[in-house]
Structure formats: C-alpha cells, structure tokens
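agent> fetching stored inputs for the magnesium ion docking request
agent> found them:
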Amino acid sequence: MRITAVKVKFLEYPLKSAFYPVWLPGYAQTFHRLNLVILETDEGITGYSAGPAFGTEAAGLEKLLSPFLLGRDPCNVEEIVQILRSATFLGLRLWYIEPALWDILGKVAGLPVYKLLGGYQDRIRAYASTGELREVEQRLEYVEQVQQLGITAVKLRFHSSDWREDLKVARAVRERFPEMELMVDANMGWRVAGLGQAPRWEVATAARVAQELAELGVLWLEEPLDQHDYQGYRLLRQKVTLPLAGGEFNSDLHEFRELVRQECLDILQPDATISGGILMAKKIAVLAEAHHLGFAPHTWTNGLGLAINLQVMGAVPNCQWVEWPYEPPGWTPEARDFLLKEPIQVASDGTIEIPQAPGLGVEIAPEALEEYGRLI
Ligand SMILES: [Mg+2]
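agent> prediction call returned; pasting tokens
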C-alpha cells in the first residue's frame, strides 16, 4: 500500500459562547480551530488525524510534506516517525500526522487501533476536565451537573494570581461533594506569554499547594512547574506525598526518559497528537509501567484527538482515567467534537467506551469539512 495524497484542511468552528481557557490568560476564545490531516492511499483507504491550530500556521504544510510522504507505505509507522522527527529541525511539531497512519492500519486490519496495540480495556472511567476559573457557586453548579451525567471525577484548574482563591473553590467542591474524585491542574507546564498575566509557582509554592490538596484527598496535582524543569520536579516530588502528573506538551522519548530517570512524576500524560504519535504514546506507557508509574494522557485538543488518545488508553494496563474536556457554555461536546459525526459522550456509569469501529473508531462528518473548512 502506498500514500497517494497528503491533505491538510484548516477547520474553524465558531463557538456558541466565548471560552476563557486558563492556559491563555486574558484571551477570549471564540473559535475552535484545528488542522485536519487526510492521508489517501492507492487501496482507497483514507486515514484521518487532527491537531490544534491557533491560526493558519499550517499553510503550506501539504506542499512541505508531500515529497516526504507520497509513495511511502503507511504501515511503516517507525519509518514515517523519523521523517516527522526531522521536521522538528524546522521548529515544526507535526506528530499529529502519525495517528492518521494508525487509522489506515486499523481499517486495513478491520480492528480498532487499541486491539492492534495489545488491547487491555474497552471502557475507561472519565473525569470531567474544566478549562476556566469560576467562582465557588458556579463551580458547584458545574459539579452538580456533571454528577447528574454519571461522572465521578472532576479536574479543577488552579491559575488565579493567588492560589488561595483556587483553594477556596476546591475546598467548597470537596465539602459539597465528598464522593467526587478530584484532580487539580495548575497549567504551569507551558506558558503562553503576551496575553494576560499568569501566575508562576516556585517549588516551595507548589509544595505548599500540594500539601493542602493532599488534605482534600485530591488524586493528583498536574503541571505545577515548567515542563522542562526536571530538577524542580525532582525536588518537589521529594517534598510532597501528593502524586504529581505532567508531560502533556513534552515530546519524544528523550523528554519522557528524563522525566522518569529524574523521578519527576508519578503519572505521565503524553498526548498522542502532541508528544510523538500513537506508537510513541504506547512506548511511553510501557516506560511508565516499567517504573510503576501511572499513565493518564492529555486529550484537550479536539474530538478526533480525544478518540486517538482513547485508542492508546484502551491498550495499556496502567491507565485508569480519561480526560473528558467539558466547560459549557463555551466548550461543549458539540463544539469540541464538531468534526465527528457523533460527539464522544460519557455513559451513565461514568465511563467512556473505546470507539470500536476499525481504525481510530470514529467517523468524520463530511458536513463539518464543508461548513467549517477554510482555504489557507
Ligand atoms: Mg493539563
């Protein structure tokens, strides 16, 4: 089988209501933008993948990639990963191309990707992942709402200029919902400068917060420090008992090797669309397993990205939670998954089923391409 066409479509979906992500302080997000990758083959099988877009930065990507990918066997994932790695020399992080190869592989085999990767579980317990800072009352209403959906865990964001403000919210949620599992994400791993003011924690601050959260029975503290501050993480982990999670924007094996070797984290969180692809994520899961670490991939990109990471999660024994991004009215399942025929939902028992169709398990909605596709 040979790749016969490489297409990258820019899609821009207007949000029904503005979304204020903590990771872009001071920014009102009014569109969900992404790059949809389409790989066509001489056997008529098409593979899809998608990566986040801020604007039209992927313009010209088809032209750049085509000479490297056309004519290659899409089943030679490792061979193509070498090509994607070489794009990092140009400052391009194109790992989100790789899952399209797995989509093709799964469709050829007639199996969902997680079965090809060593199938372990068909369903995973979901946690509702918040994206904004909210006042106590608003957040309590949110938790009430997700609880009614059957969801048994919520990840809160800590990103106020004074973390004690965030702690008030966490305490209130803990008090009102003693059964709800809680995680906390500080989003200090990768910082977007130039918009609004964002807090920055030192090891001592992170340790203080971790201690408070441990008393609330929080499951993990995510990204309290910069993604490359291996030494800071090492020191922090020696000081605290609360499990530390991170790695969503780290990429390639060497960065995860350092996170493991320097004993930075308890839970590794690669995103298969950002960290190196599906095969890389599986390798990182193995690395985590060998070191008795947890594995809880980041999924906050788009619906196809969520499906891609679900396929990895289904294939590994050390993944207990799937992040289900949900922050209405801005970030709804419909907005998140607008490019899919059906949004990915949580079942009434609080779990998400690994999509079972061959390949990545989900279908692209042709209307989404037509309606929201833009030429770049
Ligand atoms: Mg995170």
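agent> quick read of the result: The chain has a mean pLDDT of 97.
agent> awaiting further instructions
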